[in-house]
Write a structure and sequence with these properties.
Layout (H helix, E strand, L loop, with lengths): L1 E4 L10 E5 L18 E3 L4 H4 L8 E5 L5 E5 L5 E4 L12 E12 L2 E12 L7 E4 L3 E4 L4 E5 L5 E3 L1 E3 L11 E8 L4 E9 L2 E2 L3 E5 L6 E8 L4 E6 L2 E6 L5 E5 L5 E7 L9 E4 L12 E6 L2 E6 L2 E4 L2 E6 L3 E7 L2 E4 L6 E7 L3 E3 L7 E2 L1 E4 L3 E3 L11 E6 L9 E4 L4 E3 L4 E6 L10 E6 L5 E2 L2 E2 L25 E2 L4
Parallel strand pairs: 17-21, 18-22, 21-23, 22-24, 23-27, 24-28, 25-29, 28-30, 29-31, 30-33, 31-34, 32-35, 33-36, 34-37, 35-38, 39-42
Antiparallel strand pairs: 1-2, 2-3, 4-5, 5-6, 7-8, 8-14, 9-10, 11-12, 11-15, 13-14, 15-16, 15-17, 18-19, 19-20, 25-26, 26-27, 36-41, 37-40, 38-39
Length: 469
């Protein structure tokens, strides 16, 4: 806190600037030394000391970078006060989300509008004041974007959800900027208190995008490749990574090497464009570690969340770790397990997968339970006209633990005649299916099913395979 004080009320009085530190105030902090004043005089330049301006002739304004602009009421002088350090008070803003509305700013046609969501966007006070004579309020969010070259772009903020201070509610603000596709550090400030930066990847709307985020445990950095530009940021600097897809196809690869951990939470929005409904957005997560709580909207990797929206195909590569799937993992399409990793599909998992590859690892499909022996626990789905799109690979050292359940491998896609789909089924009692190589892929379905599939009951469409793949 900065105060201007004086002992003369005349127009020729002098002013002293004092810094107030509540941590050294004995009446607030009982461990502070009662003999040490919490007020410390600020060393001022000569022109300020000679200005002969009493306190009530000065005006303070909090700037978004933590500095304070000081102006004289009776002269044209301006001074900048820069604190030795900037603390992180309880009302420091926090960014929890940034989304592209894909709408142009009605007052600035070159700029596009985004929505920022967070906490304490208005700070803990109104900023600066001098009684009822002057109000220099800054209790509103100011958004800045720093590009890979270090250039800072301040945005126009509007549509604040509120202006109340010290609020614990989730708040939002719109902001507009004319920055193009690229990687940016986004911060929001109120009263000069700046949030921790969020790494924001803005994808190109005019083309398909293929981006990557790699966590490097050796250097402690996050490596980003977006739009053909590579950049690196210290993980400790970031509070979150947000990848905002464009309106066409978006592919994001996230790599978490062994010993790294996620380090920074990540959000990926593949976007969805009504004009391109068939565009498929993909997310490929290759990791060492343990995934828990995998759901249709995200999962937790080593204690940090990965969330995703508008993703049509999720691929998971489990390298020496584990993946615990929920009953519905939404867009989960392919799973590969390496280095003795494990994947667990729970009871009631009835989702279709395209690919399941097991290398030097084990997959627990579903706990053994005689009461559900006839329930299919996992289905690998091919694509119509492309039966090889469905594959189940079990390497020589891999193992598929089925228990009393069954795995159905389905090639092709049912048409008007459901008998045109070719099925293969693995069923075991308690013996795991060990690696025998990839299951043979049958030829494309013919108009009439093979003789052994011509049955009157739909359930008889299956050929049983017991004990091997």
């Amino acid at each position: 806190m900065l105060l201007a004080v004086g002992n003369d009320s005349s127009s020729t009085g002098t002013t002293t600037l004092l810094e107030y530190d509540p941590n050294t105030d004995f009446y607030i902090n009982a461990s502070a030394d009662p003999n040490v004043s919490p007020f410390v005089a600020v060393t001022v330049p000569a022109d300020f000391a000679n200005a002969n301006s009493p306190p009530y002739y000065l005006r303070f304004v909090d700037l978004p970078d933590g500095q304070i602009l000081i102006g004289g009421y009776l002269n044209s002088h301006l001074w900048l006060y820069t604190p030795d350090s900037v603390s992180s008070p309880p009302w420091q803003p926090v960014i929890t989300g940034v989304t592209d509305t894909h709408q142009a700013d009605p007052k600035w046609s070159a700029a596009y509008v985004y929505t920022l969501t967070g906490l304490s966007l208005n700070g803990g006070s109104e900023g600066a004041t001098f009684g009822d004579d002057a109000q220099m309020a800054t209790n509103y969010p100011i958004v800045a974007l720093t590009d890979v070259n270090g250039h800072v772009h301040y945005a126009h903020t509007f549509n604040w959800s509120g202006t109340g201070v010290q609020s614990s509610a989730v708040e939002t603000t719109s902001f507009s900027s004319d920055v193009g596709p690229g990687t940016y550090l986004v911060t929001v400030s109120a009263n000069g208190v700046v949030s921790a930066p969020v790494l924001f990847v803005k994808s190109d709307n005019s083309t398909d995008n293929s981006d990557s985020v790699t966590y490097n445990a050796d250097t402690g950095d996050v490596l980003v490749s977006a739009g053909g530009v590579n950049s690196s940021y210290p993980a400790l600097l970031l509070s979150r990574i947000i990848v905002e897809g464009g309106t066409k196809r978006d592919a994001l690869t996230v790599t978490v090497p062994e010993g790294s951990g996620l380090m920074v939470p990540l959000d990926f929005d593949g976007e969805f464009d009504q004009a391109h409904p068939n565009d498929s957005n993909t997310l490929d997560v290759e990791y060492h570690g343990d995934v828990t709580s995998a759901t249709a909207s995200g999962f937790v990797l080593d204690g940090e969340p990965i969330t995703y929206r508008n993703v049509q195909s999720l691929t998971v590569g489990v390298n020496g770790g584990s993946f615990a799937a929920a009953a519905d993992v939404g867009s989960l399409a392919a799973v590969t397990i390496n280095d003795y990793g494990t994947v667990t599909f729970p009871r009631g998992f009835n989702q279709d997968l395209a690919v399941l590859n097991v290398y030097a690892g084990a997959v627990a499909v579903m706990p053994s339970d005689n009461s559900t022996a006839d329930q299919y626990s996992l289905t690998l789905n091919g694509v119509a006209g492309s039966p090889s799109a469905a594959s189940l690979t079990i390497a020589a050292t891999g193992r598929l633990d089925v228990g009393n359940n069954r795995v159905l491998v389905k090639y092709g896609s049912p048409s008007a005649d459901p008998m045109s789909t070719i099925y293969q089924e693995i069923q075991t009692a308690t013996t795991p299916v060990h690696g025998r190589g990839r299951l043979p892929v049958p030829s494309a379905p013919s108009a009439r099913p093979p003789r052994h599939l011509r049955r009157t009951r739909p359930s008889a469409m299956l050929t049983r395979r017991t004990g091997g793949a």
